[in-house]
């Protein structure tokens, strides 16, 4: 059978052209798809950045105008001579798409807020729907909203941007002084939201480890270690590692740094913005911008500032509407009620150096807060608040063993009518604390001392005593960090006249950080120190505590097997002497050593100096044992408290001379009383 073959013939030029044309068309489509897949994201980011830069150049010079664009370019705002808009006082940025009822509610809440006479500009971004249209009702509400606090701009996105790019391109700071708050349309804000952000920015914008401010009430703890509550205590504001997106106000400098950090990493498909150990890593779906900001903050060791509004209220509430965050279904409603107060409400924001810092686990960050503060945050905050009510806080530690000296000191200052207004007596002894609750005018504070028991602190140089002194040093440091001027005293001293005029004369000198006394052993006395809460004093005392803690750890002082054996260890007095005297940043002034005397005064050590006949203050130290101290005080007329009657001794029973509000001696009195004290020894 003859095979049938199709005759091969050359194609015509038209056919060849058609084939080439068809092939080129198909190839073009394929190549185009490949190229699009390769450059779609990076190209889009570049386009968005270029678009934002172009938008900046296209702003008109119309002042306080309403404007809208269908091309993603906005107008409105004053320009300078080169066409650039100067840094604006404040910008409210709203992100909307297709929830007109929510947008209307948010606009109403920002319209009713308190702005005084400040100029506040408003930018409303309406994202494009996936069908390449804009929600007409949302656009209508945005267009018709009247805003008379500053300029208003409505920006219709030229494409569906999604959450990540909507956030990353809605605000570009042109100066480190620019300020803005970014609000998604399912939020509602307090009338005081702007005032809070303004005051917080004025106080904290210079903090290098601050990334942003948040209006929401924080509840989420992303690192689970068993803690169920964020340990901010009663602090009216605090710093937290977690970002708060419901009312997010980025610090301009950090936002710009974040944008520059973000885009190269977002282009890298292998990069995941996870922070090791955080439970929220599992929520990452590629559409959340906040995971990227968390990663940035973690790498840069940054914090976010939250307000702690009273009665579990919030400055910004999320209605949890259906959408990208909460899926479909009805709105779940507000989690917390909106904070409402008078326009001049005092937020009582702490000074920048006194802000607490909280880690991923919701606990006070150990790099910034002592274990003493972390374990007693509410009690410490009350003590700090009490200390700030007066010019200074007189601080002393006590336990049941020292109660007799506490009472004696109070009788002493009451007798001379020189009692300080703010006296804080701190103890870790519950029994002693309960006893002092009945004493009028005494502010006794019970704290849990790390590792220290009430019964371990009675004898000099024993482990319990050393631990008590370490916790005292930690306590002083925390008070200074929180801005409390602190007079640290031992309760077994005697005031023969008011020492504060002498102290204030030195403390009021320019640049002074600490006022103290020198002992007969040429050490800075640890039992009478006046600290101003200055940077110099704080840094110096940080070093004291650090060295004290290291020595305590190296000697294993916490080991119960040491019992009450005496231990050789540098204490706070030794450390502060060596550190304060060589610390060039800490300015130290010294009181007259012959008027502010140590316990050797009782032994005649100052007998060659006539000034010491009229000392201002005498410490009952350089003697061991409570009974020895009591005998000495009785012999010199310095026992102002009667332990039998539980009352102060009347002046006529005291072996001392009184003139006005002071006590004075002759040297024969001192020598006679010295012999009397010797006789009284057991």
Residue share in helix: 25-40%
| Shape, principal axes of CA atoms | elongated
Would you tell me the overall average pLDDT? 80
Task: Classify the oligomer.
Answer: single chain
Strand content: 5-15%
The parts where pLDDT drops under 50 for at least 5 residues are 1-22, 29-65, 71-87, 655-660, 673-682
What does this structure look like?
The protein is an alpha/beta fold.
List the SSEs and their pairings.
Blueprint: H1 13-57, E1 66-69, E2 91-96, H2 100-111, E3 121-126, H3 136-144, E4 152-156, H4 162-168, E5 180-184, E6 187-189, H5 193-204, E7 210-214, E8 237-240, E9 248-250, H6 252-266, H7 290-300, E10 303-307, E11 316-318, E12 356-358, H8 371-375, H9 377-387, E13 393-397, H10 403-415, E14 423-427, H11 430-436, E15 443-446, H12 463-481, E16 486-489, E17 494-495, H13 500-507, E18 514-516, E19 528-531, H14 535-554, H15 572-582, E20 588-590, E21 596-597, E22 617-618, H16 626-635, E23 641-642, E24 647-648, E25 657-659, E26 662-664, H17 667-680
Parallel strand pairs: 1-4, 2-3, 2-5, 3-4, 7-10, 8-12, 13-14, 13-16, 14-15, 18-20, 21-22
Antiparallel strand pairs: 6-11, 7-9, 8-10, 16-19, 17-22, 18-19, 23-24, 25-26
List keywords for this structure.
about 675 residues, alpha/beta, seven-stranded mixed β-sheet, five-stranded parallel β-sheet, about 35% helix, disordered C terminus
Give a brief description.
By secondary structure, the chain is α/β, with parallel strands linked by helices.
């Amino acid at each position: 059978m003859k095979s049938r073959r199709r005759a091969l013939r050359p194609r015509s030029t038209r056919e060849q052209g058609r084939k080439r044309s068809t092939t080129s068309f198909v190839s073009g489509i394929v190549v185009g798809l490949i190229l699009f897949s390769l450059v779609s994201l990076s190209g889009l980011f570049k386009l968005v950045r270029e678009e934002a830069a172009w938008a900046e150049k296209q702003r008109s010079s119309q002042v306080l105008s309403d404007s809208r664009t269908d091309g993603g370019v906005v107008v409105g705002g004053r320009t300078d001579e080169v066409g650039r808009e100067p840094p604006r006082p404040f910008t409210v940025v709203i992100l909307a798409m297709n929830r007109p009822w929510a947008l209307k509610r948010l606009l109403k809440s920002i319209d009713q807020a308190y702005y005084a006479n400040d100029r506040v500009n408003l930018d409303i971004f309406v994202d494009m729907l996936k069908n390449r249209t804009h929600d007409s009702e949302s656009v209508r509400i945005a267009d018709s909203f009247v805003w008379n606090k500053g300029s208003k701009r409505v920006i219709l996105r030229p494409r569906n941007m999604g959450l990540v790019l909507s956030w990353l391109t809605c605000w570009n700071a042109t100066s480190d002084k620019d300020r803005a708050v970014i609000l998604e349309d399912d939020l509602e804000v307090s009338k005081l939201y702007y005032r809070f952000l303004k005051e917080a920015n004025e106080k904290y914008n210079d903090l290098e480890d601050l990334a942003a401010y948040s209006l929401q009430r924080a509840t989420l703890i992303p690192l689970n270690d068993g803690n169920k509550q964020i340990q901010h205590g009663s602090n009216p504001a605090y710093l937290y590692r977690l970002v708060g997106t419901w009312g997010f106000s980025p610090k301009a400098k950090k936002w710009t740094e974040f944008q520059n950090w973000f885009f190269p990493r977002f282009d890298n498909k292998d990069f995941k913005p996870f922070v090791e150990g955080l439970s929220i890593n599992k929520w990452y779906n590629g559409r959340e911008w906040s995971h990227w900001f968390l990663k940035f903050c973690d790498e840069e060791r940054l914090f976010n500032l939250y307000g702690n509004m009273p009665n579990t209220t919030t400055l910004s509430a999320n209605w949890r509407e259906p959408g990208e965050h909460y899926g479909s279904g009805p709105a779940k409603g507000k989690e917390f009620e909106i904070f409402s107060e008078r326009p001049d409400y005092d937020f009582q924001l702490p000074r920048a150096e006194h802000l607490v810092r909280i880690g991923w686990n919701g606990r006070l960050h150990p790099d910034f807060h002592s274990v003493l503060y972390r374990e007693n945050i509410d009690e410490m905050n009350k003590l700090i608040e009490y200390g700030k009510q007066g010019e200074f806080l007189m601080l002393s530690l006590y336990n049941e063993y020292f109660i007799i000296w506490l009472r004696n000191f109070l009788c002493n200052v009451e007798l001379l009518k020189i009692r300080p207004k703010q006296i804080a007596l701190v103890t870790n002894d519950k029994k002693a604390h309960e006893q002092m609750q009945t004493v009028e005018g005494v502010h006794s504070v019970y704290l849990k001392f790390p590792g220290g028991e009430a019964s371990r602190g009675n004898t000099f140089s024993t482990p319990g005593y050393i631990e008590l002194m370490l916790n005292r040093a930690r306590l002083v440091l925390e008070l200074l960090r929180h801005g409390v001027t602190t007079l640290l005293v031992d309760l077994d001293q005697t005031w023969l006249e008011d020492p504060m005029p002498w102290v204030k004369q030195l403390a009021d000198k320019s640049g002074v950080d600490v006022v103290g006394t020198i002992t007969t052993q040429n050490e800075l006395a640890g039992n009478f120190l006046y600290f101003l809460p200055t940077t110099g004093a704080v840094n110096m005392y940080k070093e004291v505590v650090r060295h004290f803690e290291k020595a305590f750890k190296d000697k294993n002082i916490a080991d119960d097997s040491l019992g009450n054996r005496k231990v050789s260890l540098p204490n706070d007095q030794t450390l502060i002497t060596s550190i304060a005297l060589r610390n060039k940043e800490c300015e130290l002034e010294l009181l007259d050593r012959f008027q502010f005397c140590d316990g050797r005064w009782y032994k005649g050590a100052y007998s060659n100096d006539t000034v010491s006949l009229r000392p201002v203050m005498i410490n009952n130290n350089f003697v061991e044992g409570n009974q020895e101290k009591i005998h000495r005080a009785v012999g010199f007329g310095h026992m102002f408290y009667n332990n039998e009657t539980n009352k102060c001794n009347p002046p006529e029973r005291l072996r001392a001379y009184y003139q006005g509000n002071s006590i004075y001696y002759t040297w024969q009195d001192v020598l006679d009383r010295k012999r009397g004290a010797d006789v009284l020894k057991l």
